[in-house]
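Write out the bound-state structure for nicotinamide-adenine-dinucleotide.
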Amino acid sequence: MVEKVSVIGLGKLGASMVAAIASRGFEVIGVDIHQKTVDAVNEGREPVQETDLKKYLSENKKRIRATLSHEEAVLNSDISFVIVPTPSDEKGSFSLQYAAWAFKEIGKALAKKDGYHIVILTSTVLPGATRFGLLPILEKESGKKCGKGFGLCYSPEFIALGSIIRDFLNPDFTLCGEFDERCGKELEYFYSKVMFGNPPCKRMSLENAELTKISVNTFVTTKITFANMLADLCERIPGGDVDVVTDALGTDSRIGRKYLTGALGYGGPCFPRDNVALSYMARTLNSCADIAETTDRVNRAMAETITNKLRPVIKQGQTVAILGLSYKPSSHVVEESQGIYLAKTLSEAGARVVAYDPLANESAEAELKGKIVILDSAEKCLEQADVVLITTADTEFKQLKSDDFVADGKKTIVYDFWRILKDKLSNKENISYHPIGCSDNNELQANFLTELWGKETNNLSKAESL
Ligand SMILES: NC(=O)c1ccc[n+]([C@@H]2O[C@H](COP(=O)([O-])OP(=O)(O)OC[C@H]3O[C@@H](n4cnc5c(N)ncnc54)[C@H](O)[C@@H]3O)[C@@H](O)[C@H]2O)c1
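---
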């Protein structure tokens, strides 16, 4: 039975897992290759920024310690979760470089251990990587056979940055790819002690679990992209309103409401790379992942499409303000963020771009390297803006008032991708408000449809007269 736990890799997910597992009464040893990360965890400080991490680490300090030694961790625990980076490589696959190094160190420690030990790979990998890429390293370094001296599972978590601890402790289900029944059973039992609400544990082979993990993210991004397609269609039909359509659509239990809000594309460290990796895997296996490839292509084209829409405005040398540079509200992460992509494409198209984000200004500055002007408040951006793009549904932006947009009585064009200011900015003097996913020229669209369907009914009356 698992009593002591080790976690190899104390980054965003690993450090959060240490804190969450310790909060459920287990003793946890964390391992990292960086001394300052180890020191931070030992002192009850958070090594990375994540919601509630500091609180959980300090509250459970007596059950947590960290070390640079994989051996110390393996010899003093029953189970080791490996949660090191698996960065995308130039082929679109996930590199096993860090995981291989961690497995080598764990294997060496297993050689010195008498009892049974379970190794759990939590990092995101593609089908076959655990059994055919990493398991041989453990067997070679330990001199033991998997299933006898040690067990091996692939068990990723389904968490989002900003809510890792909450998501980890309250999952919809746990996923357990198992080398054999013994280690799978033990992991299922361990999760039943750690997770709240007794979530179902889906146990399966290592390869099926690897495919399930990557499928979750690619399915969700397909859903997001589908809603974005509906938003574009709604802009082209009289009275079109994507929220009305997706609200009804999501009520169908086969579809569901989550991630079905037509707006901007998805971003962040996981979603975009998972579609690319699934496409790579499918091509390599002589299968095809057209859906994943199309989702990725459509999502990556969004900033360019929006920039093209704004070209007439840019030509007049006007200033565009972007409110929201992180990939989602209340985040400092700008990786693959649509706000950043828009800032780049608009400035490359010749616009003067100013921008603001409540948390991500600093990381955006590093990413954009002076290409645009980053200001320290939304109000300062609005003072200078002819066109405003609201790219995240941040609470701070929701609080803006119509007066904030019309400084000095000038006329401002506002594109609101999440429709957060629809009630405040619609039909306001000097504001040309465009809620994305809603039609804003009913007459023009009605004329178009009259012509389209009029032709059909004219043909029908001709047919009747024959
Ligand atoms: N962050 C997320 O939202 C998220 C969500 C789901 C899955 N994942 C997956 O989890 C994995 C880790 O993600 P992360 O965001 O926590 O990464 P991270 O870069 O924040 O942290 C990784 C940590 O591992 C340490 N490390 C590297 N090699 C090591 C080794 N051999 N031994 C011990 N420590 C080592 C690094 O120093 C770093 O502290 C990736 O595969 C990622 O795809 C992340």
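---
The radius of gyration is 26 Å.
The mean pLDDT is 95.
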